[in-house]
Design brief:
The chain has a single domain (3-308), classed as Alpha/Beta hydrolase fold, catalytic domain (Rossmann fold). 39% of the residues lie in helices and 19% in strands. The chain is built from twelve helices and ten strands. Strands 1, 2, 3, 4, 5, 6, 7, 8, 9 and 10 form a ten-stranded mixed beta sheet that branches. Helix 3 links the parallel strand 7 (108-112) and strand 8.
Length: 309
């Protein structure tokens, strides 16, 4: 087991721990005996999305773990022989393996974008290891079969990057223009958020990971049913295809100005069979960074539910 310190981004200490195929880098906030929370970011974001959320949660007594997902920041695959795999079962499994490696007792999982997807996946596959869920947006387990079919023209246009990544031309474009593509997506998905260059540049450093392009391309091809996943994970994907319901206490969040979620996800309520609340907030796609108080309060609410159960 490797557990060492690595200096990364403005000399902030980042911890590294080995979980089978990965050396996962993560930020840790709060006291070691705090109630555990794992916050997972998406694409094209990184752990800095949760800086203010973590500050609020640690003041409420939490121990917060914010990992760099596979393909981002200092997180690395242990070997050149390991598949650069971005599928949802892999990323959900990473969260549970990280929790086990750190000795966390049934943490609350929270996330958005890829991180919301991974947190939902972990919650439905291993509910006995999770005490609660905060998910942006809604029930975020990807139905690969459904992804094979078209959506409205306006949403297809919003998802231009997914279509681009299906081709080798798209791989080349992401390889050579990852900084610009990420900045475009931030602006498009959070149209009312006036982030500055320093904020974006700090996060974009995470895209220089040598596996970034391969992991991103694999996920978007896998989710559209155009590329195979890891064979050992297929039983988990088969289970996810049955749309298992979320049994743990959960708060789901929608942003009013997110073009990726037109109309929101309030119609997902039937997928949550435990205590559940749906919140709509004046924000775009990156709710943790645009409105950290709302996201942190959602985690605190779930903690209250799970503590009283």
């Amino acid at each position: 087991m490797i557990n060492r310190q690595l200096k990364f981004i403005k000399e902030q200490p980042t911890k590294i721990i080995e979980i089978e195929a990965l050396l996962i880098a993560y930020e840790e906030y709060g006291l070691s005996n705090g109630w555990p929370v794992i916050l997972s970011h998406g694409f094209p974001y990184d752990v800095h999305a949760f800086g203010k959320v973590a500050s609020i949660l640690t003041q409420a007594g939490a121990r917060v773990i914010a990992p760099y997902t596979r393909g981002f920041g200092p997180t690395r695959f242990v070997s050149a022989d390991v598949m650069r795999n971005g599928q949802q079962a892999a990323r959900g499994s990473d969260i549970i393996k990280l929790s086990d490696a750190l000795g966390l007792e049934r943490p609350i999982l929270g996330g958005f974008d890829w991180g919301g997807n991974a947190s939902c996946v972990a919650s439905v596959l291993w509910p006995e290891k999770v005490s609660g869920l905060v998910s942006y947006a809604g029930y975020d387990v990807i139905d690969v079969e459904q992804q094979r079919h078209a959506v409205t023209p306006s949403l297809e246009r919003t998802c231009w990057y997914q279509h681009l990544f299906q081709s080798e031309r798209g791989r080349e474009c992401l390889t050579e223009n990852r900084y610009e593509i990420g900045r475009m997506l931030w602006s498009e998905w959070s149209p009312n958020w006036q982030f500055d260059k320093e904020t974006y540049t700090r996060t974009a450093a995470a895209f220089e990971n040598p596996d970034f392009v391969d992991v991103v391309i694999h996920w978007y091809r896998f989710m559209h049913g155009l590329e195979e996943g890891e064979p050992a994970l297929q039983p988990l994907e088969d289970h996810l295809a049955k749309k298992p319901k979320v049994k743990v206490p959960a708060v789901t969040v929608d942003g009013t100005s997110d073009p990726l979620k037109p109309g929101g996800t309030s119609d997902h309520a039937s997928m949550f069979v435990g205590p559940h609340q749906h919140i709509v907030v004046d924000a775009g796609h990156n709710v943790p960074q645009e409105n950290p108080r709302v996201f942190a309060d959602a985690v605190i609410k779930v903690h209250g539910w799970s503590s009283n159960s």
